[in-house]
Write a structure and sequence with these properties.
Length: 174
């Protein structure tokens, strides 16, 4: 076989902290560790990962790499990506070169890389206090209720949430 290119990602880095809806500045380098130039254009995909392992991650952004990449050449890259809603306290950025499989390479299994540090994923946490209501109410009576919503979380609460009131015969929700 003739020498082939081998495109890889290295030195992935993202912000130390981030939150839902933030634009996260993510950087990485593309390197060709093969023995031939990578002459074909290829897609680079930025993923959000809760665990730092490639697979079952949320794609955030695609970058078309459309220049020749010589053997041992390193090209710095970056993207500003919108942070999605996640259920974890940490967020890893996984970057995959040739994510659409367009380049015939020496090794197709080494195209992804993860940053060595997780970004702390801050979340809003809305809490109600105080909630005031009458102790006793007669059927079909009009009542006055009042409450305040506070964000006790570590990130800005984006606008637009819905407050809901439930009637119950006891103090237990549900």
């Amino acid at each position: 076989l003739p020498p082939l290119p081998n495109v890889e990602i290295q030195n992935v880095a993202g912000p130390a902290t981030t939150a839902v809806g933030d634009l996260a500045h993510v950087t990485w380098e593309v390197i060709n560790t093969g023995g031939a130039p990578a002459d074909d254009s290829f897609l680079i995909t930025v993923f959000a990962s809760p665990d730092g392992a490639a697979g079952n991650d949320t794609p955030l952004f695609n970058v078309l790499f459309d220049q020749p990449l010589l053997p041992k050449e390193v090209v710095p890259q970056y993207a500003d990506v919108s942070v999605p809603e996640l259920q974890t306290g940490e967020l890893f950025f996984v970057i995959c070169a040739d994510s659409s499989g367009d380049v015939l390479e020496v090794n197709e299994s080494d195209n992804c890389s993860t940053g060595s540090l997780a970004s702390t994923y801050n979340r809003p946490d809305l809490a109600v206090s105080p909630f005031t209501s009458p102790t006793n109410v007669e059927a079909e009576a009009t009542v006055t209720l009042s409450w305040n919503v506070h964000n006790i979380g570590s990130a800005v609460a984006r606008p637009f949430w819905i407050d809901a009131i439930y009637l119950s015969t006891d103090a237990t929700f549900g």
